[in-house]
């Protein structure tokens, strides 16, 4: 069911964020980064054709299972969030799904970093007053602690992705996070922790992005306070 993009949703998410005792990870061996979880409006059917050249972008990337081809189609409608395809030529985490974000500059707050990265990667400038709150910190295998910043876009907005970093920006309806087959958890021999998978479109979103999106559902939409920081990433994301 499509979720309406309105003030009722905004107030519900903001209330849920304010009521949660946020988990903070302090690890001096890891660098601090922030991602922007930007909530915007979308129309049903506006994404029937994938805007990215998927065959080029995928560049030999193996699909996780039969029936998936990496395309992010038929996911829009109502309240949504921005999801990015990272450029395949990046030096780290190339050709992966991601939320706008990056490493904090010296002296920068997580909110300032998320808003700056949103402007640099997606071409959207928003003030600090649009921030609804923060999700739990997520420590990554690649040496970062990620703080997700939830932002109310206030409408559709018009993303202009930076081509050196982002292939395309998608509007993924929040209702997609509530699919009956989501979330999924699998075991891997390299770790005792379960790997989280969020099915979206014709692909699977893994942690850290998948963990952030799962908590957006559990905490932001449902008011459920389950932790996600111990959910595992797939081995290809450890580097």
Automatic annotation (TrEMBL):
One Pfam family of this chain: NUDIX
Top-rank lineage group of the source organism: Bacteria
Domain Nudix hydrolase: 30-196
Keyword RNA-binding (UniProt): no
Keyword Nucleotide-binding: no
Cofactor names: Mn(2+); Mg(2+)
Key words of the record: Hydrolase, Magnesium, Manganese, Metal-binding
Record-linked PANTHER family: MITOCHONDRIAL COENZYME A DIPHOSPHATASE NUDT8 (PTHR12992:SF11), NUDIX HYDROLASE (PTHR12992)
Stated family: Belongs to the Nudix hydrolase family.
Protein name from the UniProt record: Coenzyme A pyrophosphatase
């Amino acid at each position: 069911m499509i979720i309406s993009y309105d003030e009722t949703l905004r107030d519900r998410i903001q209330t849920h964020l304010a009521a949660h005792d946020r988990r903070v990870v302090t690890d001096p061996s890891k660098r601090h980064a922030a991602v922007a979880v930007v909530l915007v409006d979308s129309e049903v059917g506006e994404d029937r054709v994938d805007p990215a050249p998927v065959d080029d972008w995928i560049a030999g990337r193996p699909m996780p299972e039969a029936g998936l081809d990496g395309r992010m189609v038929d996911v829009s409608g109502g309240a949504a969030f921005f999801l990015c395809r990272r450029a395949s030529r990046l030096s780290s985490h190339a050709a992966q799904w991601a939320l706008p974000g990056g490493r904090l500059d010296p002296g920068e707050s997580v909110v300032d970093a998320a808003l700056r990265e949103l402007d640099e990667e997606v071409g959207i400038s928003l003030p600090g007053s649009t921030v609804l709150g923060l999700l739990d910190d997520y420590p990554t295998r690649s040496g970062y602690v990620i703080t997700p910043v939830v932002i109310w876009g206030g409408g559709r907005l018009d993303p202009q992705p930076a081509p050196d970093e982002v292939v395309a920006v998608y509007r993924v309806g929040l209702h997609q996070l509530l699919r009956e087959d989501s979330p999924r958890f699998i075991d891997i021999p390299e770790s005792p922790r379960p790997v989280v998978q969020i099915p979206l479109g014709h692909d699977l979103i893994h942690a850290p992005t998948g963990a952030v999106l799962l908590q957006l559902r559990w905490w932001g939409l449902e008011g459920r306070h389950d932790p996600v920081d111990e959910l595992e990433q797939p081995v290809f994301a450890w580097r």
